[in-house]
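Progress note, sequence design subtask.
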């Protein structure tokens, strides 16, 4: 991917093994859990688009060492 997400809108935020950060043009989140069984539920912020350009809404489940990168609509 070669998306320009722009400048960060604030510091990275972490809770347990989940880290996320908002950018001018998007949002990124990653589950850094070392235990492969640790799944985390993450709520997608409003106005985000997936890699195919379709709106992303609701909740996603991230396995350990899995992340999501989304663009703003």
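Output:
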């Amino acid at each position: 991917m070669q998306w320009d997400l722009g400048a960060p809108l604030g510091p990275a935020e972490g809770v347990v093994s989940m880290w996320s950060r908002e950018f001018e043009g998007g949002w990124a989140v990653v589950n850094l859990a070392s235990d492969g069984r640790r799944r985390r539920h993450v709520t997608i912020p409003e106005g985000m688009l997936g890699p195919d350009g379709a709106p992303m809404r609701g909740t996603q489940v991230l396995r350990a060492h899995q992340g999501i990168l989304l663009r703003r609509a």
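The beta strands are 13-15, 18-23, 26-31, 40-43, 48-49, 55-56, 59-62, 66-72. Work on this subtask will continue into the next period as scheduled.
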